[in-house]
Hints:
By secondary structure, this protein is mainly alpha-helical.
Amino acid sequence: MKKILYLNIILIILILVASIAIFYGNNFPIPFDFIGNFKDYGIQYILIILLIIGLLASLIASVKIKKYNFKNRFLCVFLILNCLFLGFLVFEGSSEYIKRRKALTLLEKEYMKQAKKDIEKDSVTYKFAGGFTEAAYNEKTENKIDSIYKNYGITYFNTGCIIDFMDLKAQEKYEETVQPYLIKRNGKNWELKMKSEIDKIKN
């Protein structure tokens, strides 16, 4: 029965890994950060469920079967129940991932459509999450900076302090769509030129 014992150990490890995968599936496309997101994986709940499965396996294994002692019956039942639990985790995690993946694709298409409209209006808007802070410069300097942005056909819009990774990921499609237009409009290395003009005003 050593094989069944080893299989149970491997299965428990897979269940713990699945709990981490489910977190990223439910929060796709959040960047992977094993340590930073550790408290959100819900491993403590998984361990509680494994304990409950162990108790349930003990009750079922208490039914006597010829040629099998309690330990062997317990390991077999524990293995079967954990297989079912792992299957449930994989199903739930993959379903949510597919759902969010489709939602991202739709959002990317919306951003690409918006990018084409903004190109036609010669007014590209870059969104960023920077929180609501006081202006770093006086009103006159801020107006000059905004004027430089407009000269290059762009506007920066602060969406606030809440970071939506789905929206951030979709915005990449917007940026990919407008970049060729901005290069054609402003020339190569236009971002460096714009930054240089802004730095002169700030200094």
